[in-house]
């Protein structure tokens, strides 16, 4: 537990530079068949950090919706003391468990507020959340004896978070990185078997959604947010993983930025067959909801004559499905279903 003196000291620490050189996701090889509570301490290789957990966490804080939904899916609500930074309603099936976990903030909480709940383990989906300018750096938490974990999808090999937009990837993201995160967190909490069962269910969902699906030549455009200078899905993030899974092509596969901002005239030139719309509940950018996006597309001079707009070929996804997360599998399912509904898949 953190005492008030340590909490005050933490707030006076100068932010440490976040280590961004990232290695592969892995763990120390403790026997996955051991009961929770056995085999500690456990060490996980995570984004250039050695994360050592002395015992199974009992007071976990998740600072992003993506990591929150993994912990809830692993049945760990009773070991969570807070969540933060939400873009969407919680994933279906997790509503009851989520209701038992306090929400510190819809967006990022202050470092002081995070410490007030005395976490013994902190997770985040993004390097920026546990970095300079975020809630706090990993070093600030770890100097207080609180281990931290960042989703490997945000620091995997080939990702450059400082390249513009939301960063770029020289290597395409795969769902294996999401599965590795589940495996790491399950290991940290001593529920390895639950992790493997969850991964198996997710893999089966992908197989079921894409079985017999073939959509060669069908172009998809992914619009996350912002109508003035839209954030569109590049080649190698979650939209790329979804597109490859359904056998289609990304209209902006020639850019390695995660979410490049591209003008509408360029979109008109590409004229995608299907537009995948982020249906967000947050209120940070223009055109957050799918309804607002459709209204814009159907009235803007540069977009109203797009093939997808005239034929109303829209697929609606949660923001979480459009970022690397457990819900990217949900994205595969919904895009696959959309392609079949529009008669574009063989």
TrEMBL record:
This protein's record includes keyword Hydrolase: no
Listed SUPFAM superfamilies: Helical backbone' metal receptor
Location of the Fe/B12 periplasmic-binding domain: 59-346
Keyword Signal set for record: yes
Alphabetical UniProt keywords: Signal
Signal peptide residue numbers: 1-26
Name used for this protein in its record: Iron complex transport system substrate-binding protein
Family: Belongs to the bacterial solute-binding protein 8 family.
């Amino acid at each position: 537990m953190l005492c008030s003196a340590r909490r005050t000291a933490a707030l006076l620490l100068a932010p440490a530079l976040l280590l961004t050189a990232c290695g592969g996701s892995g763990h120390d090889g403790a026997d996955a068949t051991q009961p929770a509570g056995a085999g500690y301490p456990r060490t996980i290789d995570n984004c250039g950090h050695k994360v050592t957990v002395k015992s199974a966490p009992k007071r976990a804080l998740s600072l992003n919706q993506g990591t929150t939904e993994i912990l809830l899916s692993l049945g760990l609500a009773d070991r969570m003391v807070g969540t933060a930074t939400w873009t969407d309603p919680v994933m279906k099936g997790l509503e009851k468990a989520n209701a038992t976990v306090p929400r510190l903030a819809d967006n990022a909480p202050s470092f002081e507020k995070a410490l007030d709940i005395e976490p013994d383990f902190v997770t985040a989906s993004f390097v920026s959340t546990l970095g300079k300018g975020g809630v706090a750096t990993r070093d600030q938490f770890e100097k207080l004896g609180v281990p931290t974990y960042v989703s490997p999808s945000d620091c995997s090999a080939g990702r450059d978070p400082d390249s513009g937009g939301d960063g770029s990837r020289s290597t395409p993201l795969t769902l294996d990185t999401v599965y590795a995160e589940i495996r790491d967190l399950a290991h940290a909490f001593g529920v390895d078997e639950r992790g493997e069962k969850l991964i198996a269910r997710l893999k089966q969902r992908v197989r079921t959604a894409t079985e017999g699906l073939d959509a060669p030549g069908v172009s998809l455009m992914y619009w996350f947010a912002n109508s003035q200078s839209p954030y569109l899905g590049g080649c190698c993030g979650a939209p790329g993983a979804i597109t490859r899974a359904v056998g289609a092509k990304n209209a902006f596969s020639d850019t390695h930025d995660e979410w490049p901002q591209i003008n509408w005239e360029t979109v008109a030139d590409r004229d995608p067959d299907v537009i995948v719309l982020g249906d967000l509940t947050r209120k940070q950018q223009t055109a957050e909801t799918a309804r607002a996006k459709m209204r814009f597309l159907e009235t803007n001079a540069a977009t109203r004559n797009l093939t997808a707009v005239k034929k109303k070929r829209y697929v609606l996804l949660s923001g979480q499905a459009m970022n690397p997360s457990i819900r990217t599998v949900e994205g595969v399912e919904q895009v696959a279903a959309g392609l079949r509904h529009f008669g574009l898949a063989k």
